[in-house]
Write a structure and sequence with these properties.
Blueprint lengths: L1 E5 L5 E8 L6 E4 L6 E6 L4 H10 L1 H8 L6 E2 L5 E4 L2 E7 L6 E2 L3 E4 L5 H27 L5 E5 L6 E3 L4 E5 L7 H13 L8 H11 L3 H10 L6 E2 L2
Parallel strand pairs: 2-4, 5-13, 7-9, 10-12
Antiparallel strand pairs: 1-2, 3-4, 6-7, 8-9, 11-12
Helix pairs in contact: 3-4, 4-5, 4-6
Length: 227
């Protein structure tokens, strides 16, 4: 996978993916976050894909206009870290620093570096919650991995591996802890039976509110871009 940009104002990030199955160039714009992805055959030169994108520029920008709510991580923008809006402010510090209403970033920072900081913050929060619920359940998990998943907020494998979306750090704390309780409950019930939901309620308590938040507002967490 490679990343390029379509020139213009503003420049449009392009993600190039190669596929052994592809017979021609295909173009897709994500309905979640407006990400523009070009899929091309394995042996096709990247320049041809970029030329294809240039030819489709008007179409791309028209469709991206429908994603006007996309927020780019840049100075002055706000991110809902722990579900609380915090403005990105450049400081003289050499590290990222989370304050009540701001997140301070170093003078030389990138969106990717900020994303890494948020991922580590998410890992700390999710590990703490997972440890808490696993201890309450009397079961142990093998490991925790974080991904930028689009179709699920977490998962639990049969061997006790927990996976979470790092974007949960952008959700309210009770939503993050609910997802942790949900996945840990799978250590005892690898299904979504009545027994499973009863286990979630034992671990977390009344879970309907955070579950409904994910259903109605969870998609908004994907509108924050760190390219």
């Amino acid at each position: 996978m490679a990343e390029h940009h379509l020139p213009g104002s503003p420049p449009v990030p392009l993600v190039l993916r190669r596929s052994a199955r592809a017979r021609r160039i295909s173009l897709r714009i994500s309905a979640l976050d407006g990400r523009v992805t070009l899929t091309l055959p394995k042996r096709l030169h990247e320049s041809e894909a970029l030329e294809f994108a240039a030819e489709k520029e008007d179409w791309i920008r028209t469709h991206l206009a429908k994603h006007s709510d996309v927020v780019i991580a840049q100075a002055g923008a706000s991110l809902p870290i722990d579900g609380r809006d915090r403005q990105i402010v450049v400081s003289n510090n050499k590290r990222f620093k989370l304050l009540d209403d701001e997140i301070e970033v170093p003078a030389k920072w990138t969106g990717r570096a900020l994303q890494r900081f948020l991922r580590e913050l998410a890992r700390d929060r999710l590990a703490e919650a997972s440890d808490h619920y696993a201890a309450a359940l009397g079961r142990s998990y093998n490991r925790i991995t974080l991904r930028d998943t689009r179709s699920r907020w977490g998962s639990c494998s049969s061997d006790g591996a927990l996976m979470y979306s790092w974007r949960l750090i952008l959700a309210p704390p009770d939503v993050l802890t609910y997802v942790a309780a949900h996945e840990v409950a799978h250590l005892a019930e690898m299904n979504h039976s009545a027994a499973f939901w009863a286990q979630v309620e034992v671990l977390y308590g009344a879970y309907q509110a955070p579950r409904n938040w994910l259903k109605t507002q969870g998609g908004s967490l994907h509108r924050y871009r760190f390219d």
